[in-house]
Design a protein that fits this description.
Radius of gyration: 19 Å
Order of helices and strands: EHEHEHEHHHEHEHEEEEHEH
Helix content: 40-55%
Number of strands: 11
Number of helices: 10
Bound molecules: NADP nicotinamide-adenine-dinucleotide phosphate
Structural class: alpha/beta
Distance between the termini: 47 Å
Length: about 280
């Protein structure tokens, strides 16, 4: 029988712990603060930013929103980041992506102090992850590791296949699995015969961005399936990368979309912000 990995429930349990730790920190005079920068009028970005602000309020953090107009220049954005890097009330800074095409995204992400880079996108934090000495964990992969732990799914010695090699999901996911002693294979658009590889996997993480990419014939009986995808189908409904209906007949554990990986990502952003705030009194 297939078990559902309930991201909402796990996220809510982790957020409870974050709230308790935040209450303790506040008694010591520190309130974690997250600065969220949004540039332009992208409706999806607005939804993500609102959700992040709401999550901050729920656990007792301060959130500071900087909504900038579409015409903002790279220089103006860098000046704001410099100000926030030096603001003692701000523990985490995130710049909602995508930025308008006229802005140098790399320059912006590299300008955020690695000690306030709660998305863990800065090259210094990527390097720390590579050598296994990280301060902040990249949110989506960290959320997945948390889910596996919550469900007592041990990855040590397991064959794990990550489909997708983006800097924000696929690559850091593979690194975290490797740190936990999994044997990891990364697949991408140039990988030949993906099904031959996925069929040998104990755990599959699909981070492709294509509806119904992972089908029943690509999965072995009892595999653990993590669906990172957030796609819209022809009817406009949110769906993942996995053919949930059929793959769940073979899997031992599976994440749904929505209600799987998604709720964990913001939760890990809160966790990183708390970690940063705690370093104020260390
Ligand atoms: P991305 O940057 O577009 O990367 C997609 C990856 O999939 C690439 O590495 C690409 O390979 C690979 N790929 C594409 N077509 C393939 C194929 N036919 N066979 C094998 N690999 C293929 O996307 P992303 O940012 O990693 O996001 C992936 C999905 O996760 C999206 O649906 C996104 O919306 C979702 N997401 C969800 C969350 C969440 O919190 N739930 C967070 C982040 C992202 P190449 O490198 O060779 O092009």
């Amino acid at each position: 029988m297939c078990n559902l990995i309930d991201g909402k429930k796990i996220a809510s349990s982790v957020r409870e712990k974050i709230k308790t730790e935040t209450d303790e920190l506040k008694k010591k005079g520190v309130t974690p603060g997250l600065a969220v920068i949004i540039v332009g009028n992208n409706p999806a970005s607005r939804v993500y930013v609102n959700n992040k602000k709401k999550a901050c309020e729920q656990v007792g953090f301060n959130s500071y929103e900087y909504a900038l107009k579409e015409e903002t220049t790279t220089k103006e954005l860098l000046e704001l980041i410099d100000k926030l890097n030096n603001d003692n009330n701000v523990d985490g800074i995130l710049c909602q992506l995508p930025l308008p095409g006229s802005i140098d995204e790399n320059a912006v992400l590299n300008a955020i102090s690695p000690d306030k880079d709660v998305d863990a996108f800065h090259p210094v934090n990527c390097g720390r992850l590579f050598i296994g000495n990280q301060k902040f964990l990249p949110c989506t992969p960290a959320g997945i590791m948390e889910m596996l732990k919550y469900c007592d799914i041990d990855v040590s010695g397991k064959n794990c296949v990550v489909i997708g090699r983006s800097n924000i999901v696929g690559k850091p996911m593979a690194m975290l699995l490797l740190q936990s002693n999994a044997t990891v294979t990364i697949c991408h658009s140039k990988t030949r015969n993906i099904a031959d590889i996925t069929k040998k996997a104990d755990i599959i993480v699909a981070a492709v961005g294509k509806e119904n990419f992972l089908t029943e014939d690509m999965v072995s009986d009892g595999a653990v399936i993590i669906d990172v995808g957030m796609n819209r189908n022809a009817q406009g409904k949110l769906c993942g990368d996995v053919d949930f209906e059929n793959v769940s007949k073979k899997a031992s554990w599976i994440t749904p979309v929505p209600g799987g990986v998604g709720p964990m990502t913001i939760t890990m952003l809160l966790k990183n912000t708390l970690t940063s705030a705690e370093s104020r009194i260390k």
